[in-house]
Every structure is written in C-alpha cells, then in structure tokens.
Amino acid sequence: MKQDFPKLGIGLLCQLFGKTRHAYYDALCRKERSLVKEDIILQEVSNIRKQLPRLGTRKLHHLLGKRLLSHNITIGRDYLFNLLCDHNLLVRQRKRKAMTTNSRHWMKKYSNLIKDMEITRPEQVWVSDITYIRMVNQWGYLSLITDAFSRKIMGYSFRMDLTAQGCIDALTMALNNKTYQEPMVHHSDRGSQYCSSQYVKLLLQNNVAISMTENGDPYENAIAERVNGIIKTEFNLHSSMLGLGQTQKHISKSIANYNALRPHASCDYLTPNQAHLKTTILKKRWKNYQTYSNPKMTVQSF
C-alpha cells in the first residue's frame, strides 16, 4: 500500500539544514545570475567564432574582455577554460602532415640570412611556405607570404598543383601590397618552387634579398609554419567539401578575418593589420604553456 508523506514547506526544509529562508532564496538568485552570465559569455564566444571559428581559449579571453565590460562581467582565464570544457567548446589540435617541399633538385640554393637577425620593423623579413588543403578526391595547395614582424599575410594563392606559379602569384600579390621602401629579405625553404628562375628573377627585380633554410629543420622557418597552422586549424581549412571556386572564396575570407581580427600574443595582442602599422618593437606576451588538464578531458591549449 502506497504511503503518503507530508509535503514539507521551504521554511521547514531550511530549518532541517540549518539555513534561513533568506539564504535559500539568495542562493537561487545567485544561481540564476550565474546562468545568465554563462549564457552571455557563450553567446559572445559564438559571435567571435563566427569569424574566427577555432580561435584558442587564451585569444578568446583577450577578445572577450572588452565585449563583457558592457555587461559588467569580468572573468578569469581558468573560468573560461572550465566553461568551454563543460560545453565541449575547447579546441582540439589536429596532427596531419603532407609533403609539399622537394629540395632535391639541381637549382641554386641560398644561405640563411635571418638566422641571427633581430626583426624590428614591418617588411624587414617576409617568410613563405606552401601548405595543403584536402578537397574531394584531390589536393589543393595554398601558398602564403607572411610579414615576420606583424604576422600579416601579404600575399596568397590557391591552386590544384605544386608548380612555381602559385608561389609566383602569391609573391606578386605581396609586392603589390608592399607599403614600406626599406631593404627586405625573403625567407623560405629550399623547395623547387622558390629556387625556380622565375621566382628568383621576380625577387631580384624588386631588390629583395634571398634567404633559405639550410638543414631542413622546420624551426628555421617557424613563423611561416605557425601561420600555416593557424589558417588551417582555426579557420577549418584542413579539408574542404566545396569546389575550387568556393574554397578560394573561403580562403580569401579566412585570410581577411585573420589579418583584421585575430590578435597575436607575439605582437602585443594586436591584429596583423594593427601590428603592420607599428614601427617600434612589439612586446611578446606569449608563454610556453603546458597541456591544459581537466577531469573531463585533456586538450593542448594554444
């Protein structure tokens, strides 16, 4: 036979736990305010990631600061990590690699001119590299030229082949976007595209010194490798289910957003466009972070 239990009022329940009714309702209000705060933060994160789809948590924390001030909300970095983790919004790193460099060729190779160089201004050093984007049943290749000081992508080209033409197109765009007249160095790996007669001729015609890696070590071209990773990882460009034309539009939009919106810790948290206007040395605000751990999951933060 079912036994009927008396319904206990809030007042009696509070007495049983040694709390006042005021404390109970105050806790409800705090919980409601906390949920509203989380909703606002997650909405602002969503707004940012519409243009910067896979931006890391530390960059998000920097960008959220000004946005949340209008809501009278301040948050710490660890709070944001935990909140994004609870909602499965932390960014996972991908590890994929395809060969885009062929340095076993007969063409002339050049020495590394930037090994001990201090980079102090925009357009002092441009770094170049090629990265792959997987398309439906084929590969596309993205050539990038980046300013080493500001991290601004100065020129790019996306083609379905690994000929020198993609690199030439990217270099031509970069030269057209050049704004300073001081001497400049172009640094790349020893791939056949960068050693081709047409590419070398274009550099020399524009009085650009030629520098190349010497040992095949990716750290010799670390800035270019890093920008490749950012463009592919944070803008969902590891692969594309679109056609060539739509993929090219996606790349153009992603690079425009990267230059205009994404802050860099190595450039005093300025965007590449902002940093490119500076003529003084920029403060480095990055650290070597350890892997971020949470009882629920583990990701590599960046």
Automatic annotation (TrEMBL):
Superkingdom in the source lineage: Bacteria
PROSITE patterns in the cross-refs: INTEGRASE
Database matches in SUPFAM superfamilies: Ribonuclease H-like
InterPro entries the record matches: Integrase_cat-core, RNaseH-like_sf, RNaseH_sf, Transpos_IS3, Transposase_IS3/IS150/IS904
Gene3D superfamilies found in the cross-reference section: Ribonuclease H-like superfamily/Ribonuclease H (3.30.420.10)
Domain Integrase catalytic intervals: 118-280
Pfam families according to UniProt: rve
Protein's name in the database: IS3 family transposase
Native source species: Zhouia spongiae
